[in-house]
């Protein structure tokens, strides 16, 4: 009886709250709050709650520690908080408890419901900023996923467990393409991370892009552009953590983060506020350290798990594909889909730039006949690109070179063929059949 009583007391003791650790604000400069008296109880990523004498509270995250104290950034603003305010350490704050009960819900980056439908069912606790899984624990990328979009399925195919970037300037159809992919996704569940988006686009995603049927199998994590940089950065991490939780239950998850650029901009604001030196175009070094930590978390799961197929949008400033963030992301992911303003101005949507888009799953995800068709069409498009200006100004005369004439016929027919209304869905087999017919009509041996 004595042993049993001691065991019960030990279990009860573990359920008691730990000691309260409270310090004081010593300085607030811009977004950065410095606290004293808690250095031994926190580390990077720990959560703190700062309370004014009037009772107003704001949560923050520890982002730096030095001889002056602990540096904390807010999930909102430090309005009304000054020197002497209480800073209490929040135990276990940098974690979430996502699970299947989150499907169909809209949450903020801290896991608080935004849809007014009451509390969220809780799953097992997991870290928001988990490390990517070990490389040798992953399975191989799976089979090709049909999207119904001819330009993607032929020229930059997407496979199960692949991570693809969508690179686009403003106004060239990125949001439209994302909405099409969300509706047609061959996945058990869709997780959408809206990082720094316009407020109106949250409802637009729910009502138009996903619709009732799509929303019933989706989780949306939203942090609009007016939120603090810490919240915007957290949105991408939270969406990834939700996707990981569902993947661990054997589900195939389509993770869509819009956009990685705003994640990087949020990290830039955080880094600069801590005094980091700007490196490439104003981005501090931590931006390029954080990108692989985020992007490598998706992909194929281990044996017995599901997979995370991920789509990350990248806003290309001034259509410059050599932007530091775009260049870094392109080197990490398994492929990139480039939407071109030049193609959009010609009136072809989706405005996929066929020459600059690439899937690293090629050539293995196509069979031999499909690769032959793809190679022939790509070759014709490349040859046409070399003389396009001459053709447009009439400097090239038909009949001068038979192979060039054939390339022009194939490229122009392909351009017309790939124009596709958003409501139209074409199977992969039919997409290749259409291109085979174009090659045949032009007299190409691959037709």
Automatic annotation (TrEMBL):
One of its GO terms (biological process) is protein secretion by the type III secretion system. GO terms for molecular function: ATP binding; ATP hydrolysis activity; proton-transporting ATP synthase activity, rotational mechanism. Residues 160-344 form the AAA+ ATPase domain. SUPFAM superfamilies: P-loop containing nucleoside triphosphate hydrolases. The keyword Metal-binding does not apply. It holds the Pfam family ATP-synt_ab. GO terms for cellular component: cytoplasm; type III protein secretion system complex. Gene3D superfamilies: 3.40.50.12240. Keywords: ATP-binding, Cytoplasm, Nucleotide-binding, Protein transport, Translocase, Transport. It is found in: Cytoplasm. InterPro entries: AAA+_ATPase (IPR003593), ATPase_alpha/beta_chains (IPR050053), ATPase_F1/V1/A1_a/bsu_nucl-bd (IPR000194), ATPase_T3SS_FliI/YscN (IPR005714), P-loop_NTPase (IPR027417), T3SS_ATPase_C (IPR040627). This is Flagellum-specific ATP synthase. It comes from Roseivivax marinus. The lineage of its organism: Bacteria, Pseudomonadati, Pseudomonadota, Alphaproteobacteria, Rhodobacterales.
């Amino acid at each position: 009886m004595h042993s049993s009583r001691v065991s019960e007391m030990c279990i009860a003791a573990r359920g008691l709250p730990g000691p309260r650790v409270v310090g004081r604000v010593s300085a607030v400069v811009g977004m950065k709050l410095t606290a004293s008296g808690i250095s031994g109880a926190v580390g990077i990523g720990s959560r703190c709650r700062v309370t004014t004498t009037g009772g107003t509270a704001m949560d923050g995250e520890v982002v730096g520690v030095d001889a002056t104290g602990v540096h904390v950034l807010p999930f909102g603003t430090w309005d009304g908080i000054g020197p002497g305010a209480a800073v209490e350490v929040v135990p276990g704050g940098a974690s979430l408890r996502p699970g299947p009960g989150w499907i169909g819900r809209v949450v903020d980056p801290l896991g608080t419901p935004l849809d007014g439908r009451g509390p969220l069912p809780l799953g097992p606790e997991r870290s928001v900023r988990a490390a990517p899984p070990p490389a040798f624990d992953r399975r191989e990328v799976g089979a090709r996923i049909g999207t119904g979009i001819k330009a993607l399925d032929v020229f930059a195919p997407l496979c199960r467990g692949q991570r693809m970037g969508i690179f686009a300037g403003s106004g060239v159809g990125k949001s439209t393409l994302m909405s099409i992919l969300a509706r047609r996704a061959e996945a058990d569940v869709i997780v959408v991370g809206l990082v720094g988006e316009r407020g109106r686009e949250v409802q637009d995603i729910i009502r138009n892009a996903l619709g009732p049927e799509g929303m019933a199998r989706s989780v949306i994590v939203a942090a609009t552009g007016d939120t603090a940089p810490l919240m915007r950065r957290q949105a991408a991490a939270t969406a990834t953590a939700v996707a990981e939780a569902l993947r661990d239950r054997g589900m195939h998850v389509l993770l869509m983060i819009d956009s990685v650029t705003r994640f990087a901009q949020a990290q830039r604001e955080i880094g600069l506020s801590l005094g980091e030196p700007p490196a490439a175009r104003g981005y501090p070094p931590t931006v390029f350290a954080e990108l692989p930590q985020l992007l490598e978390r998706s992909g194929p799961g281990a044996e017995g798990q599901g997979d995370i197929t991920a789509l990350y949008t990248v806003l290309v400033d001034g259509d410059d594909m050599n932007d530091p963030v775009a260049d870094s992301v392109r080197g990490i992911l398994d492929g990139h889909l480039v939407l071109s303003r030049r193609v959009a101005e010609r009136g072809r949507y989706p405005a996929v730039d066929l020459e600059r888009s690439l899937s690293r799953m090629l050539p293995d995800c196509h069979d031999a006949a499909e690769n032959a068709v793809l190679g022939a069409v790509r070759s014709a498009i490349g040859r046409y690109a070399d003389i396009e200006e001459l053709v447009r100004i009439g400097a090239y005369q038909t009949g001068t070179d038979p192979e060039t004439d054939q390339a022009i016929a194939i490229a122009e027919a392909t351009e017309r063929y790939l124009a596709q209304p958003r409501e139209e869905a074409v199977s992969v087999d039919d997409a290749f059949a259409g291109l085979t017919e174009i090659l045949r009509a032009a007299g190409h041996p691959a037709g």
